[in-house]
Amino acid sequence: MSEITVSSTNWLAISLRNDTGIVFNLNDIQQWQHLRPVTASSSSSEVTSTSTVDKQQEKTEDDDENTNELNRNLIKFTPDGQKLLINGQNKQIYIYISSYDENTKTYWQLQRIVTIKKRASAFDVTNEILLIADKSGDVYKTDLLTDTSVVLTADDCIMGHLSMLLDIAFITTDKNQQFILTTDRDEKIRLTHYPNAYNIEGFCLGHSEFVSHVKLIDQNHILSASGDG
């Protein structure tokens, strides 16, 4: 399932199949680019051959990964609009940076790849960190301020859940407190302190079906979507 997002710098991005995406400059519709990842060391994101890492991921893909709930092609900009993240179907998240190249007429370059153990079911970003939720209920954190590709391990897991996670959001309240919101298949929304993720602030239990999405309205209010309608 494709998703769409718009950056604070007026770029529109659409996720496609096969780990690709399309970006358009809303200020100049002639500026657009089809993003096809290969490796983070590639000089251009326009190369179409399959990387060794991609092939290895396909070979090790578990049969139970092919679930409809996880077939979301996630895509999201950082708040400052300088980075674009695309989640593929091969346990990798591709991070692009805004970088115009006059010679190749490209506007976004693949900076790095984050490889995860389980396919991401949701992620959220700030300008500094990436939070990844997976099908087993774990949440991983990695730094966005580096340009080096990374394979996440158990040491990068900051908290777990007893159910598959469907969405995640990072919150800074008007009192400058930081929290992580997570939603799951078992009707719950959980509010967890950050960075001390072992400290659970509380739960929202108003839904009677899976909670598929959670969005911030402002610093103190959220909007959630659920299978209960």
Automatic annotation (TrEMBL):
Its main location: nucleus. InterPro entries: Trm82, WD40/YVTN_repeat-like_dom_sf, WD40_repeat_dom_sf. Keywords: Nucleus, Repeat, tRNA processing, WD repeat. GO terms for biological process: RNA (guanine-N7)-methylation; tRNA modification. Residues 40-54 have a biased composition (Low complexity). It is found in: Nucleus. GO terms for cellular component: cytosol; nucleus; tRNA methyltransferase complex. The keyword Nucleus applies. Residues 40-68 are annotated as: Disordered. PANTHER family: TRNA (GUANINE-N(7)-)-METHYLTRANSFERASE NON-CATALYTIC SUBUNIT WDR4 (PTHR16288:SF0), WD40 REPEAT PROTEIN 4 (PTHR16288). This is Uncharacterized protein. It comes from Rotaria socialis.
